[in-house]
Amino acid sequence: MPPKYLKLKTPHTLADESGMAFSRSLGVSFLTAVLIECGGGSSMRPAGFVNQTRHSDAYLWAIWRTAQRSVVSQVDLNPLQQTAEGAAPVILPGDSRALNVEPQQLTVAPGPDVSSQALLAATGTLRPNPTGMIACPQPCDARYTPAYSLYRPELTRYAASWESVNADFDTILEYEFENQILFALGYDMRWR
To answer: Which pTM value belongs to this model?
Structure first.
């Protein structure tokens, strides 16, 4: 049977081939249903990672799940302020919504470690190569950091030298994945 096409009858009604009028809201509902059926109603990207690490997607998912459990347990809103200014911790109860947050094509990638000489010249800090630090773009408060996250587009970048030190790599990514989750849940990220 050939498909029936809807014709516009007036600005507020639609009519089918027999001339039967539909209310505008019914027509809008119909068109919305068609768009959703065809995949045009959603701008969600598939869950997962754009994995540029030397680790498997399964490995990144395991770290993501650990970060989710951490946010479900408690939310520390100001670890950087505690370190930089000696501020009192701002700890909130855990947020179970974290279990529903998934990465939406989150790019996870290494960045080149800044050289010891460049770090010394820029900050006065002496660290041997590899330094475990990368340049942190604005709006970072620090010039160099072991890792950072951006939220639009979703990106977590870390100093490449951490990738071969699994325990530290896991801890660094867990913290950055917590940041991605907290941002998705609408938390204030100023001191994360």
So the answer is: 0.77
